[in-house]
Amino acid sequence: MNNNPTVLLVDDDHEITDLLSTYLARFNFEVLCAADGPAMRAVLAQHAVDLVVLDVMLPGADGLALAREIRDQSSLPVIMLTARTTTLDRILGLESGADDYMSKPFEPRELVARIQSVLRRSQSETARAPALEASDVVCFDGWEMRRNERTVVSPSGLVAALSNAEFRLLNTFLKTPRRLLTRDQLMEQARGRTMDAFERSIDLLVSRLRHKLLDDGAEASLIKTVRGAGYMFTAQSVQARAVWRQ
């Protein structure tokens, strides 16, 4: 059985995909190629892929739209490749759901290092998810969410109770840190039988959670608004911690 990671290269420049396919194979990657959105979808429907390397400039739908499409449907890691080099372009790429972003021209060995790094991070997050679900306490950037008590504790020790909807929303954010989540995705995760019509505005729910996290100022840091797209939970460290019981 072949356990080598499979990388999908999405780029309409066949010279680049041919060169990268040969180079990545030297590092024990299985490589698949697609030249545009329809070809990418066909490959993803037929093969198990571990990571997508996605060019921004593509015929038809551009790479940013395709990255959002991938992120809406899965947690498949994505690295963007583009000749666009401004800070805004990088931000747009990351906000579209990319895990990393490289500018052309680039060194193939650096791309290998980026792929390996993103795969390690993705595998770590996948392995950590069950522990987060089962843990009594989840720590994030100096904060604690205490599941049994349904409270959050600030770095200074201030305790705030969470409603059922706020608890589900924070739990969703903690499972997917540094990933853009649309309002529909958040509503689907945060919705419960106890939610009434008043609570169905996800923006209101985010605002209430921000207030509990002391994050509702002009420059909110933990829950970022991505204009026209949704929200991103920016915690850099999310760790499960069990409570010792005698």
UniProtKB/TrEMBL annotation:
One of this protein's GO BP terms?
regulation of DNA-templated transcription
User: Taking every annotated instance into account, which residue ranges of this chain make up the domain OmpR/PhoB-type?
Assistant: 135-235
Q: Which domain of life is it from?
A: Bacteria
Where does it localize? Cytoplasm
Start-end of DNA-binding region? 135-235
Enumerate the PROSITE patterns for this protein: OMPR_PHOB (PS51755), RESPONSE_REGULATORY (PS50110)
Q: Does the keyword Phosphoprotein apply?
A: yes
Q: Which Pfam families match?
A: Response_reg, Trans_reg_C
Q: Does the UniProt entry include the keyword Metal-binding?
A: no
Single GO cellular component term: cytosol
For the modification 4-aspartylphosphate, the affected residues are D55
- Organism, as annotated: Hydrogenophaga crassostreae
GO molecular function per UniProt: phosphorelay response regulator activity; transcription cis-regulatory region binding
Taking every annotated instance into account, which residue ranges of this chain make up the domain Response regulatory?
6-119
Q: Which UniProt keywords are listed?
A: Cytoplasm, DNA-binding, Phosphoprotein, Transcription, Transcription regulation, Two-component regulatory system
- Record-given protein name: DNA-binding response regulator
